């Protein structure tokens, strides 16, 4: 019974903390051309809301590398990389974002972050998905409802994350 309870507590802690036992990996796809951007993303940001800034500043040339990185569920700062895709607004990211959003094995907040980025890139597509997920898991449903209300914070850089 104690082992079962300990396992349950571990699962709950991992679910709510969003960690992978400290095994978050600093994926750096795109080779040497993007090494400075990845260095800045992973190490140079003193203020949390600015974590996506290096990826956003690099622009669409980073889209494929970011998409490659976010496909790994153990990526360090994955949520910020997902947000960066939305702020870059490169349509090439849509298929990766849709895959994450539709994957029921993904944690709810990654799915919601993917939907928010889809909305940033394509408002019509984002609204279509919001209708589909308004009754979905908690965070995904919250993002869906915010999209339906066209809340301004969805498309502005966050100062609260």
Per-chain topology:
Elements: H1 2-17, H2 35-43, H3 53-58, H4 63-70, H5 78-88, H6 94-102, H7 108-121, H8 123-133, H9 138-148
Largest sheet: none
Shape estimate: globular
Mean pLDDT: 86
**Strand portion, in percent?**
under 5%
Number of strands: 0
Give me the Rg, rounded.
16 Å
| Helix/strand order, N-terminal first | HHHHHHHHH
Distance between the termini: 38 Å
Task: Outline the low-pLDDT stretches.
Answer: 1-22
**Helix content estimate:** 55-70%
Which structural category do the helix and sheet elements fall into? mainly alpha
How many helices? Answer: 9
Q: How many domains? A: 1
Describe this protein's structure.
- The chain is mainly alpha-helical and 161 residues long.
- It has one domain (25-154).
- Helix content is 59%, strand content 0%.
- The chain is built from 9 helices and no strands.
- The protein has helices spanning 2-17, 35-43, 53-58, 63-70, 78-88, 94-102, 108-121, 123-133, 138-148.
- Helix 8 packs across helix 9.
- The longest helix has 16 residues, at 2-17.
- It is globular and about 40 Å long.
- The N and C termini lie far apart (38 Å).
- Mean pLDDT is 86; it is low at 1-22.
Keywords:
161 residues; mainly alpha; 9 helices; disordered N terminus
Put the structure in a nutshell.
It is built from nine helices and no strands. With 161 residues, it is mostly helical.
